[in-house]
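Please decode residue identities from the backbone states below.
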């Protein structure tokens, strides 16, 4: 029995979450789901985007599933607050092609690992006379921690190459520290090929020849941008999941936001949320059920009969879920 914190959020968050929960409920695992609130709708009800109670529920859970929230300028970011409170320093974003899905590449299987706690997202900004300044904080500790995590991830997932992405030719001190940490840790992993690229060149290679990459590790902002680029290579935001991992906790969420343009229509693609649940199952070491769920989704994508409009189909979210459930029943 696992205790799972469920934070549906708002917009299409609750729709895709309902889809994932229905499928998790039909697996051979017992879950105790505990719902918690966050986001803009929560703000309007409670005056905060992320109540203490939500953080408490996430801290007590074995893992957390997060849908999506609408973020309003000036409000505290619920997801960044959670990442900090649970010390989720590693963000894992797979870029994987699925047969049947229209995409630029049909043969990609790479993973981007992004540092999640510092860099340009440290949130240290101030107004100056001329405008404003943001501080890009890079510490030795966090650089080593994320590089160690990435090498470890590569090793335990039988991936043979790790690419560090930075801009140390310009950001000599901050990214110099990150690059040095990467090569120092690489000494402990002789079986994994270690290389580094500048972020601008990387942005191009990911479009022209992404197959040459296997696992990528990078700082916060570069990772954010490259992973959305990655999503674009394999069929868009409706399909890309992510994991936020710390020493003790894990939070799993689709890369997409609250989809205000399609919210309430029941046509959101549940795949990214389902694949986030698959990542959670693997984190809980429930590999058999994880693969079962991913395979069922894969079959539905490949057949293309019951898929949502963003994938070129006509199905509603819950019709697609019904189809996946049917496949699960046969496994
Ligand atoms: P978005 O990801 O919500 O939407 C971008 C486009 O992709 C829209 O056309 C949307 O309809 C489509 N899309 C996204 N997910 C989809 C799905 N599952 N199925 C089908 N189509 C899908 O990004 P946008 O519009 O930039 O942001 C909307 C709100 O979400 C903003 O308030 C933003 O701050 C917030 N946001 C929240 C995130 C989170 O909760 N972690 C992450 C990114 C954005
Ligand atoms: Mg992003």
């Amino acid at each position: 029995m696992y205790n799972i914190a469920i934070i549906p959020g708002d917009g299409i968050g609750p729709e895709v979450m309902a889809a994932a929960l229905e499928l998790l409920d039909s697996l051979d695992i017992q879950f105790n789901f505990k719902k918690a609130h966050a986001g803009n709708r929560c703000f309007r009800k409670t005056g905060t985007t992320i109540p203490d109670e939500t953080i408490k529920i996430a801290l007590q859970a074995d893992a957390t599933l997060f849908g999506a929230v609408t973020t309003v300028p000036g409000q505290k970011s619920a997801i960044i607050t959670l990442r900090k409170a649970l010390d989720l320093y590693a963000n894992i974003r797979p870029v994987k092609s699925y047969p049947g899905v229209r995409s630029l590449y049909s043969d990609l299987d790479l993973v981007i690992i992004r540092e999640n706690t510092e860099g340009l997202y440290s949130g240290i900004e101030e107004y100056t006379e001329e405008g404003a300044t943001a501080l890009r904080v890079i510490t030795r500790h966090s650089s080593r921690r994320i590089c160690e995590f990435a090498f470890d991830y590569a090793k335990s997932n039988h991936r043979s190459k790790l690419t560090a992405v930075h801009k140390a030719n310009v950001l000599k001190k901050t990214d110099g520290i990150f690059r040095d940490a990467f090569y120092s840790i690489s000494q402990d992993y002789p079986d994994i090929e270690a290389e580094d690229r500048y972020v601008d060149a990387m942005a191009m290679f990911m479009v022209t020849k992404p197959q040459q990459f296997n696992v990528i590790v990078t700082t916060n902002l570069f990772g954010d941008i490259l992973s959305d680029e990655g999503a674009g290579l394999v069929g868009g935001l409706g399909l890309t999941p992510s994991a936020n991992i710390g020493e003790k906790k894990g939070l799993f969420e689709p890369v997409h936001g609250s989809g205000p343009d399609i919210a309430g229509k029941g046509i959101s693609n549940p795949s990214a949320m389902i694949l986030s649940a698959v990542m959670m199952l693997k984190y809980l070491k429930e590999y058999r059920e994880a693969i079962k769920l991913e395979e069922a989704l894969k079959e539905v994508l490949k057949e293309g009969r019951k898929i949502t409009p963003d994938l070129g189909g006509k199905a509603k979210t819950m019709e697609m879920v019904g189809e996946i459930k049917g496949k699960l029943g046969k496994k």
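Observation: The two ends are 21 Å apart (CA to CA).
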